[in-house]
Design brief:
Helices cover about 45% and strands about 15% of the residues. It is an alpha/beta fold. The strands form four sheets. It has a seven-stranded mixed beta sheet, with helices on both faces. Strands 10, 11, 12, 13, 14, 15 and 16 form a seven-stranded parallel beta sheet that branches.
Length: about 700
């Protein structure tokens, strides 16, 4: 099974939204600048692309620079040729902006690369929240006052319908409030309440810090950088200002940035300063505990975690570090561990208590593909997030080989570090000194649409890893395509397909028996990590459409919420609050691996947003429908040649489509299960072929479990 190249937009269905304005020439630029200021100050959490259509060969360089200074995502485009271009060149602005049909046609021909465009008149200003316009998904709509349009790509050549009044002003009094210098705009934006957009606070805050040296602004901008995985930028900005000793919060944020770059000693100094302030102490101590744990010092980590809990007994991060460094979870010697020469070392993300259920299952699933014994007699565990140091290198080189996987380890902002820029905290020099076979197994490239890696560091680490690996298997063809694009051509063939072992669970678990009877249930899972990247402006739409589907499906089976992590329970709260739907919640994050597999094997259908809310039930033989908010969901469905088993969270007809596809799988459930089994057999063939190669690499005749034929 192979997959064709796909763009992120086509995979997730996420709407591309842009603002647009028409500027005849340089004389219209002052009005556009006022419009841009008003947009930022009235909608501080919004920063979509802004397309400026202009006449003539282009705007003067000075005018273009003034426009770009006010908005980080401006693109200047010529208006085109023909009657519309003539209208621009002659200054016949009324023809361009007052004629609805002209506006629609200009959109259709010049900015068709967006799904939704909000056309604003540069002679007006934005006075209020544009959320209602951003959420529009149908037709072409004209608003008053001014010339404001919301146009969908599929309706670009239709006549606009009246949409009522928009929060737009067109009087001189309206405009005068936004006729500010750049410095005044920066200060006004930074003084606003609410959550600013990352791009805007960076765009306005960075020059403000350079101009004023303001520490509080530097902290806010650095925190925005950290939220986007821009740790070097955060550290550089805070390093450029003088932070008073008693300013705890900036020290804490600076420490966070530095530890994310693996500058641990510098981070500790900043975090220790932050512990002096009661309001920041718990977080600072939790980060100090994490640094100690990363270095394998569980005793110090436990002490810092307890100090954090003394400052705030409810602090989740301190509590997690306290639990992680207590008893058996503290990395103490295991009396059942076998001889080193009989073991494989295994780098993985070992999920702590109440962690993500899918990630909890993954290490065991990977080990099952190498044989039925998944315990310490045959396996030596290495947590990916702990620093791979000289002691770890010595332990690995004493084993038969090193397995890395599974899961989406290639992601930039989970357990960030400056050594590799992905989840395994391994310095290049130590990676180069591993002298046993390295086997990368079923790893995924997990960046969200809109996320980026620290490219230079990640690329160098990735290339070293591929060169060093005896086997390099990625869990879907989408990840293969992404990784090959970052490698020189001579390494492309080393990157091959190895399905996630959770997708072949029925073949791997010793003594597996398919259920004779299934519960008449449908399990629904939603995910909320990086919600802005998942949903954009469409969360309200998604929730309403999901509610429609749940009501329709409730007449056929009992619908329950299954939470892979604690945050996944939000879907049950939101459905009840917004739509009056009450769902039982299954806290799968508290379940053991056998319980997870049993639950997914006994239900009739799983509708899941997390990758492993699809792959695990599929591997247990259960039909699935994926709620696609991340490219990896579509990658998997493409690999098994069942794209119809997925629906985008942005689909305008999500409720109806989801209901139709779910009922289709339920109506002939036996055939649906048989189809899952058939798709699974294809993945098992790949897994078996790779297993033969792995046996040759390891020089062993050990057998993986025989595949089932059912």
């Amino acid at each position: 099974m192979t997959a064709s190249p796909m763009t992120a937009d086509s995979l997730t269905g996420k709407r591309r939204i842009a603002f647009a304005a028409f500027v005849v020439g340089d004389d219209d630029v002052p009005g556009l600048l006022t419009l841009l200021r008003s947009l930022a100050l009235s909608n501080p959490g919004v920063c979509e692309d802004f397309v400026v259509l202009h006449g003539g060969p282009g705007l003067p360089a000075a005018s273009a620079a003034r426009i770009h200074a006010l908005h980080p995502r401006v693109e200047l485009r010529p208006a085109g040729t023909g009657p519309r271009g003539d209208a621009f060149r002659t200054g016949d602005y009324a023809t361009v902006i007052r004629d609805y049909a002209t506006v629609i046609r200009d959109y259709a021909t010049v900015i068709r690369d967006y799904d939704t465009v909000i056309v604003l008149d540069p002679r007006t200003v934005v006075r209020g929240d544009l959320g209602a316009l951003l959420r529009l998904r149908e037709g072409a709509v004209a608003f008053t006052p001014g010339d404001t349009f919301v146009i969908q790509r599929d309706h670009a050549e239709t006549d606009p319908e009246p949409g009522g009044e928009a929060p737009i002003g067109d009087s001189q009094d309206d405009r005068s409030a936004y006729e500010l210098s750049d410095a005044e705009l920066h200060a006004a934006y930074l003084a606003l309440n609410g959550t600013p957009h990352h791009d805007l606070i960076v765009h306005y805050g960075t020059p403000h810090v350079a101009r004023t040296g303001d520490v509080e602004t530097a902290r806010r901008v650095a925190l925005a950088h950290i939220g986007a995985g821009e740790f070097q930028e955060a550290a550089d900005l805070l390093g450029s200002v003088r932070i008073p000793v008693n300013e705890a919060w900036p020290h804490e944020v600076f420490g966070h940035a530095l530890m994310s770059l693996s500058r641990y000693e510098e981070a500790e100094a900043q975090l220790l300063l932050a512990t002096a302030a009661p309001k920041r102490a718990a977080t600072a101590f939790a980060r100090l505990a994490q640094i100690a744990w990363i270095h394998g010092d569980d005793t110090t980590a436990q002490r810092h975690a307890m100090s954090g809990l003394s400052a705030d007994p409810t602090h989740r991060g301190a509590r997690q570090m306290q639990r992680r460094t207590t008893g058996a979870s503290a990395g103490l010697p295991n009396p059942r561990e076998g001889a080193a020469e009989d073991q494989l070392a295994h780098v993985a993300y070992y999920m702590p208590q109440q962690g993500n259920a899918g990630d909890k299952l993954l290490p065991e699933s990977v080990r099952l593909t190498f044989g039925p014994d998944t315990g310490p007699r045959r396996w030596h565990s290495i947590h990916a997030h702990r620093l791979f140091d000289e002691a770890a290198l010595e332990r690995v080189n004493a084993r038969r080989g090193l397995v890395i996987g599974g899961g989406g380890l290639f992601i930039p902002d989970t357990a960030p570090n400056g050594n590799s820029a992905w989840q395994w905290n391994v310095p290049d020099a130590l990676l180069d000194r591993i002298d046993v076979p390295v086997m990368v197994y079923a790893v995924g490239f997990n960046a969200f649409d809109g996320q980026s890696y620290r490219r230079e560091r990640f690329n160098a680490s990735l290339r070293r890893l591929v060169e060093r690996s005896a086997f390099f298997g990625l869990r879907n063809h989408g990840s293969i395509e992404k990784v090959r694009a970052l490698l020189p051509a001579d390494l492309h063939e080393k990157v091959r397909f190895q399905p996630c072992p959770t997708t072949v669970t029925r073949q791997l678990v010793d003594g597996w028996t398919d259920p004779a009877h299934r519960e008449n249930t449908i399990l629904v899972n939603a995910a909320y990590d990086r919600a802005g990247l998942r949903f954009g402006h469409d969360y309200g739409h998604f929730l309403a459409e999901l509610a429609k589907a749940i009501r329709a499906l409730g007449g056929h089976a009992e619908v329950k919420c299954v939470a892979h992590s604690v945050d996944d329970e939000r879907i049950a709260f939101d459905l009840r609050r917004e739509h009056g739907i009450s769902l039982p919640v299954i806290p799968m994050y508290d379940s053991g691996n056998d319980e997870i597999r049993d639950l997914y094997a006994r239900t009739k259908l799983v509708i899941g947003m997390r990758g492993h809310a699809g792959m695990i039930p599929f591997g247990c033989g259960t039909p699935i429908i994926s709620l696609i908010s991340h490219p990896k969901m579509a990658y998997f469905l493409s690999d098994i040649e069942r794209p119809e088993w997925g629906v985008s969270v942005h689909d305008k007809n999500l409720g109806a489509v989801l209901t139709e596809r779910a009922l289709g799988l339920l109506d002939d459930h036996a055939a649906s299960v048989a189809d899952v089994h058939g798709r699974q057999r294809e993945l098992w063939k790949v897994t078996q072929a790779n297993a033969a190669e792995l046996r040759a690499i390891l020089g062993t005749t050990a057998q993986t479990p025989e595949g089932r034929t059912a």
